[in-house]
């Protein structure tokens, strides 16, 4: 039989404490570093509006739209279908937001039998429903190239202005 090797428990404990302290220092170092800015989609360095302010504005607009959608989702969960559109005073905060009420839209091209309705005004966001060709839908506001529509079941969503026309 082979002789059993002796374990130096003190050296093993010291090594484990060293690794533990090293991991703790790494975590502290990571928390002290300022966060790096998140990359934004569809911004090329050669575009004239690719400055820091423009990128930050895009990020803020996306965060605002996401928070509005989350707010509507939470209101639907709490209040059921009694969800109100965004307040008219929002136009003062977001000058690009047109809160024109009591207007409608429909799909502009007959080649599309239906188009997607998104949770926020961003084509990569979650699809919450669809609009069907030939039907008329009320819209509650317009933000740049997007219309916010209210569907018959009370859900609010966003559609691209390129695919619809106001009537």
Automatic annotation (TrEMBL):
Gene3D superfamilies from the UniProt entry: SH3 Domains (2.30.30.40)
Keywords tagged on the record: Membrane, Transmembrane, Transmembrane helix
Annotated SH3b domain residues: 102-167
Region (Disordered): 37-56
Transmembrane annotation, as ranges: 7-29
Record-linked InterPro entries: SH3-like_bac-type
Domain of life: Bacteria
Comp. bias intervals (Polar residues): 39-52
Annotated protein name in UniProt: SH3b domain-containing protein
Organism: Candidatus Amesbacteria bacterium RIFCSPHIGHO2_01_FULL_48_32b
């Amino acid at each position: 039989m082979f002789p059993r090797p002796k374990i130096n428990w003190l050296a093993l404990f010291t090594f484990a404490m060293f690794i533990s302290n090293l991991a703790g220092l790494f975590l502290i170092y990571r928390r002290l570093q300022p966060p790096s800015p998140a990359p934004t989609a569809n911004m090329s360095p050669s575009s004239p509006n690719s400055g820091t302010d423009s990128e930050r504005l895009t990020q803020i607009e996306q965060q605002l739209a996401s928070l509005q959608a989350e707010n509507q989702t939470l209101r639907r969960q709490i209040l059921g279908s009694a969800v109100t559109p965004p307040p008219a005073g929002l136009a003062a905060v977001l000058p690009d937001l047109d809160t024109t009420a009591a207007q409608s839209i429909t799909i502009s091209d007959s080649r599309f039998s239906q188009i997607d309705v998104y949770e926020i005004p961003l084509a990569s966001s979650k699809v919450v429903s669809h609009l069907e060709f030939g039907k008329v839908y009320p819209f509650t506001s317009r933000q740049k190239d997007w219309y916010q529509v209210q569907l018959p079941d009370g859900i609010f969503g966003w559609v691209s202005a390129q695919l619809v026309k106001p009537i």
